[in-house]
Amino acid sequence: RNELQRMVADAGEHDPDDWEGWIAAVKKSPDWPQAVSIAQAAMGSWDISPYRADPVRVRRIAAQFQSFTPVEWQTVRYAVPHLARFFLQEGSATALFAALYQGLIFLLALDDQFGSEDWNLTQALATTILDSGVDAKGYEDLVNALEVIWTSRGETSRLDWALDLLDQLVDSPAPIPAARDRFFEAVCSTFRTHPRRIGNEHRELFRLLSIDLHKEADFAALPVLPANDTNTHSFSGAAFLKGKIVGIYTLAESAALRAKTVLEAQFTDVEIRLNHDHVGSARLESLAREADYLLVVTKSAKHAATDFIKLKRPRARSELIYPAGRGSSSIISALLRAVEVSN
Which of 113, 138, 201, 325 has the fewest CB atoms within 10 Å, measured from its CB? Predict the structure, then answer.
């Protein structure tokens, strides 16, 4: 208690220089005008290394998430993306920050003001948690929060989010398989309820994920559109992919393989080339030079390789395509959008 009082007093005298001081300032003045701007500037002005060296500090911050009053939360809510980016920055000791990531996802899952930016944020947080490893309780809490988000807000326009996360859940250890099964069922319900609003590409990817989860029967039970029923969300630019080379650079090999399988099944005479090299190589240079469309999954890539791709990509070729996520669904959707826009 004395420590909190000291932080409040210090925050009243000058701008805070760490997140503890920032939280103390919010608690002292919930309508603090500079709260969001200071949080936004934290990435470039506050040092993350003390938090890497002292996980207790991070857990203490995460614990305070549960203590905000509704008025305080209104201020904190606008700063959440900046706080998350600070602790998600490259080189962070992600396993040490898991409690903070979990706390943020939990709060966002329950927040009535969940918005468009929060889809990307929750996906980034969940991906980082799964990448860093999580115990059984943490896994169940995480997947339950994702299920809450999807069942309460999920819609077909956000299927990339759901399928990307299901993609990663398939490839990650599942200490509580039942939690993953519940998330699968939540996504399956969307396919069951809105068959005409879901494109063939998403349906084919969901079929592959169903197979990987031994849920073939669930997929087979989904409604099938009549052959003469035109799906309004089907891709209309298939002819533009005919005879083209599509390159996918990512370190998430299984996601790339699923994307390759879907694209080859949906479109004839298209060549899909994958690359997972960590640094520049002859194979990667060939891909950069020859691909008609080249997707670079920056959320799963090495800077050395991505810089190499930019250097070797001829100006006459199309611009690089950067998927919003790193899963199969984001890869496929990014390619199809780019093809439609360019033609």
Answer: 113
